[in-house]
Amino acid sequence: MANKPSIPKGTRDFSHQEMAERNYIFDTIKGVFRTFGYAQIDTPAMENLSTLLGKYGDEGDKLLFRIQNSGEKADQAPEKGLRYDLTVPFARYVVQHQNEISFPFKRFQIQPVWRADRPQKGRYREFYQCDVDAIGSKSQLNELELVQIVDKVFSLLGVRVALKINNRKVLTGLAEVCGAPDKVVDITVAIDKLDKIGLEAVKAEMREKGLGEDAIAILEPVLTLSGSTAEKIARMRSLMAGSQTGLRGLDELEELFGLISAAGVSIDVDLDLSLARGLNYYTGAIFEVKALDWQIGSICGGGRYDNLTGIFGLPDMSGVGISFGADRIYDVLKGLDKFPADLRSTTTLLFANMGADEVRYLLPVASSLRSAGVSVEIYPDSTKLKKQFDYAERKAIPFLSITGADEAAAGTVQIKNLSSGEQKSFAKDDLEGIIAFIL
Q1: How many whole angstroms separate alpha carbon 156 and alpha carbon 142?
Q2: Integer Cα distance of 83 and 97 in angstroms
Q3: Whole-angstrom Cα distance, residue 4 to residue 2?
Q4: Which pLDDT tens digit goes with each residue over 147-204?
């Protein structure tokens, strides 16, 4: 008995309908990226393992999918792994192609990534990221552009979101004023779990990592700080008096929020001093986006990184980027019923098959419509009309042409709107009239 076919846990098949919906997301995001001057690149699914290891922290390294060497002598070929994100491969790309690139370099990538995570709702082992990055400039106009891109994308998708911003220099400053500058990674990893496990559990994790009660007492009010952005920054300045790094982070936040205000961004943007983002390579502004009307984890995240290309031999190349989690965005749009109704069909007009002569009569009409950009099908078999009607209904095809011998003799084409029931007859060569009726 043959094994029942299956796919690995944490992966999914996508039907033609789901692909239409996913492409709607990708096309919307791509369109916005391009209006801000970002150009598309692709990188391989696999990278040398040395490229990936040590860039995501200990927890990230554990989630790398390693690839068994095949087709190469194991002792001569470097180990490989599936990419964990698109940012580290982008940094490798920039270093490898630096002589061909004009800086600042603005790129986007829409490709799958893989993580050896435990599959659960909203968390997959294979999923798509839509990354947009600017590298080779330290200007916070780049951060502003990312905020504007988030604003525009979710406005077009019809989803209300909130964008949270913090700065890694502020978190480094917190570690310094706590007297634990060597614990900045432990502090950020713990803080990053605040939404998931709550304040008390975060404090317990900090104790496990060796932070004393005095340090935790300094951190706790920061994690629950409220008020306006100006009030939060003012209160943090008094706390950060002993940390030049922390004060620089506050200066950057003040500048960025000033730019956001001047640009007239419409989404909710909040300074959240508990935001940490788990990845070790962030050095400046960090971002996280959540949907307001659907319960799910963050749907976008990113930040500023100053040293990523330095790991590959190109120092002083600062970049900033944000990643749109396409799979979670899909779940939000599906849950809120925000996909356009016309995505249900990939075909606008179906020509019923009334016989071999009628099909030969319709072939040039179908070709002309396709040349004009209209999606057209001719039913492949001459069979009962009910079966052809059912096919059109299942595929949500809005228009059906039943053109028989009489219409062919008269040089006409009959087209019916299956939604309204309206039916019209057109001359075979009246391409403009046909298009006006069906589009």
Answers
A1: 21
A2: 19
A3: 6
A4: 999 999 999 999 999 999 999 999 889 888 887 777 777 777 787 787 788 888 888 8
Q: Given this structure, which CATH class describes domain 346-438?
A: alpha beta
Provide the β-strand partners of residue 103. none
Is 206 in contact with 219 (CB distance < 8 Å)? yes
- With beta carbons less than 8 A apart as the criterion, state whether 150 and 288 touch: no
β 161-167/268-271 pair status: parallel
Token pair for 323: 């990643």
The token duo for 331 is 């779940």
How far CA 204 is from CA of 172, 179, 190, 191, in Å, comes to 20, 18, 9, 11
Amino acid identity of 391?
Answer: Y
- Please state the length of the chain: 439
Condensed to tens digits (0 to 9), the pLDDT of residues 89-112 reads: 999 999 999 999 999 999 999 999
Tell which residue, 4, 26, 17, has the closest CA to residue 326. 26
CA distance 84 to 134: 20
Return the CATH number of 16-335, one of 3.30.200.20, 3.20.20.370, 3.40.50.1860, 3.30.930.10.
3.30.930.10
User: How far is 134 from 293, CA to CA, in rounded Å?
Assistant: 30
Kindly give the residue spans of alpha helices, DSSP state H, lying in 158-224.
Answer: 168-177, 184-191, 194-197, 199-208, 213-223
Across the chain, mean pLDDT equals: 91
Residues contacting residue 152 through CB under 8 Å, at least 6 positions apart: 32, 35
**Which residues fall within 8 angstroms of residue 180, CB to CB, at 6 or more apart?**
187, 210, 211, 212, 215
